[in-house]
Design goal:
Elements (H helix, E strand, L loop, with lengths): L8 E4 L3 H12 L4 E4 L22 H14 L3 E4 L2 E9 L2 E8 L13 H5 L3 E3 L8 E3 L1 E2 L11 E2 L10 H5 L12 E7 L1 E4 L3 E3 L16 E3 H8 L20 E5 L17 H15 L4 E6 L9 H8 L4 E5 L2 E6 L5 E7 L4 E7 L1 E4 L3 E3 H4 L7 E2 L5 E2 L5 E3 L9 H19 L4
Parallel strand pairs: 1-2, 1-11, 2-3, 11-24, 13-20, 14-15, 14-20, 15-16
Antiparallel strand pairs: 4-5, 5-10, 6-7, 8-9, 12-21, 17-18, 18-19, 22-23
Helix pairs in contact: 1-2, 1-9, 5-6, 6-7
Bound molecules: flavin-adenine dinucleotide (FAD) and iron/sulfur cluster (2 copies).
Length: 417
């Protein structure tokens, strides 16, 4: 690498952690390459209906961040790409970045002519498979880069309708995967998390009963860009529920599933109870919990929810959820305060499942150590872990963590602003 052109930092994962680390380092004067495997940046948080603690839509903060990414000449963003190799080299890292074929290029104007003619439908990944979308589409309304994506695997043989309909020559149905090697000064791994799958909790109706959903699905049900246009409706019959139960620690703090606390699920449920109550003020909401973990100022949310009409807290672990004869769901739990087993009948159950680090299951090329739960532990030279890849945390903590990671990465490069 020449003396005049410093090596960039490479950030893997463009959730809130990766975006923060990128912006902090770039705005301090460093070149940064941000690699994201999805077609758009934003990670998991962009899929929330509202953010705690302020309960604002995640698109607000994200728009500011994407504007900063777009305007900073030191930032290069590569979407639809991942790191396949990361070797020590010259005191830094030689990183191989593999990109899936970019079937739609920068000439895309978002006119939508391609979607209108597309005969193939796929389950919408942004809405966690709860809706169907054309194979060619904008990934979601807040997507950045603002460019259509194409699920080529879903195309019937010989179909070229979208390419023929696009008058901007923005579609290349024959695009091939590409690969490049980047000499990086340091690597920030911000690969985040996946929700614990509810079908591993059949005793709680997960994956068995249609009206038992995960907390991440509830976020999409309430979101205006979600599968029901923001109406909270039961998946089985499309009716608004009048009784909703939240099951805390569903699979968390449980050695059979995730032995750790995911740190955000209590707060996520309180947030969801607030927006369910706002939309369905007559609904009875019961929250089954072991502990209510609301550290610091987040305690205010607990007080706020406890004062809402129709909200009840039951201290006790739910043992089972089964179908009732009338289409309802019956929860059985030990009410610790009453000292007996209680049965509660509801229309919709939300399982507050935890966060599983992507590093746990992925083949990781970073040479990172991982703890027994799969979270990244530093130890590889020039590789720094940030956000939920390192430990479960909310957006505010993730942002602080990623700022620290950026500072460390900048120190590794030995350059100042
Ligand atoms: C139900 C629920 C609700 C929540 N609500 C809130 C809330 O209201 N307020 C709040 O503060 N927090 C909330 N959280 C927590 C919040 O979602 C996390 O703090 C946040 O997502 C952490 O961001 P991250 O960047 O570390 O990870 P992620 O958001 O997971 O981002 C990681 C990114 O890395 C990408 N990636 C992964 N692997 C690779 C790879 N190999 N190569 C390239 N890219 C890769 C992913 O595609 C993703 O874009 C909630 C959590 C849950 C479970
Ligand atoms: S790919 Fe072409 S037809 Fe489709 S939205 Fe972009 S410009 Fe329009
Ligand atoms: S080629 Fe694929 S994306 Fe394009 S119109 Fe046909 S099915 Fe849809």
């Amino acid at each position: 690498m020449s003396a005049t052109r410093p090596r960039p930092l490479l950030v893997v994962g463009a959730g809130i952690a990766g975006i923060t680390a990128t912006l902090e380092a770039a705005e301090a004067g460093h070149e940064v390459v941000l690699v994201e495997r999805e077609p758009a940046v934003g990670g998991r948080a962009i899929r929330s209906h509202h953010y705690f603690p302020k309960l604002c839509p995640p698109s607000c903060g994200m728009e500011l961040n994407t504007r900063r990414l777009e305007r900073n000449p030191r930032v290069r963003v590569i979407t639809g790409a991942t790191v396949t190799a990361c070797r020590e080299s010259n005191g830094g890292r030689e990183v191989t970045v593999a990109r899936t074929p970019a079937f739609v290029n920068d000439r895309c104007t978002l006119c939508g002519a391609c979607s209108a003619v597309c005969p193939a439908k796929v389950k919408d990944p942004f809405n966690l498979g709860m809706a169907e979308v054309p194979a060619i589409r904008l990934p979601h309304p807040y997507a950045w880069p603002k460019r259509f994506v194409l699920d080529r695997d879903a195309c019937p043989a010989g179909c070229r309708k979208c390419a023929e309909a696009c008058t901007y020559d923005a579609i290349d149905l024959d695009a091939k995967p590409t690969q490049e090697t980047i000499e990086a000064a340091a690597v920030v791994v911000a690969t985040g998390w996946n929700p614990y799958p509810i079908d591993k909790l059949p005793e709680l109706g997960g994956g068995v009963l249609a009206d038992v959903i995960a907390n991440v699905q509830m976020e999409r049900l309430a979101a205006p860009a979600g599968p029901t246009g923001g109406k909270i409706l039961r998946p089985s019959d499309g009716k608004p529920p009048t009784r909703v139960a939240f099951v805390q620690c569903a699979g968390s703090r449980d050695t059979n599933h995730l032995p750790y606390c995911s740190a955000v699920c209590c707060l996520a449920t309180l947030k969801q109870a607030i927006y369910v109550h706002e939309q369905l003020p007559e609904a009875e909401i019961t929250i089954f919990y072991i502990d209510r973990r609301t550290p610091g100022r987040n305690e205010d949310m607990l007080t706020r929810v406890a004062e809402l009409k129709g909200v009840h807290f039951v201290k006790g672990k739910v043992g089972s959820v089964v179908a009732g004869a009338d289409g309802s769901l019956v929860l059985k739990a030990e009410d610790v305060e009453l000292g007996r087993i209680v049965e509660t009948r509801v229309d919709l159950v939300v399982l507050a499942t935890g966060m599983v680090p992507n590093l746990k299951s992925d083949e990781t090329p970073f040479g990172l150590l991982r703890d027994e739960d799969g979270f990244g532990v530093e130890g590889a030279a020039g590789v720094i872990v940030a956000g939920v890849a390192r430990r479960p945390e909310d957006v505010a903590a993730t942002t602080r963590d990623a700022t620290g990671a950026a500072a460390k990465a900048c120190m590794v490069t030995g350059r100042s602003a």
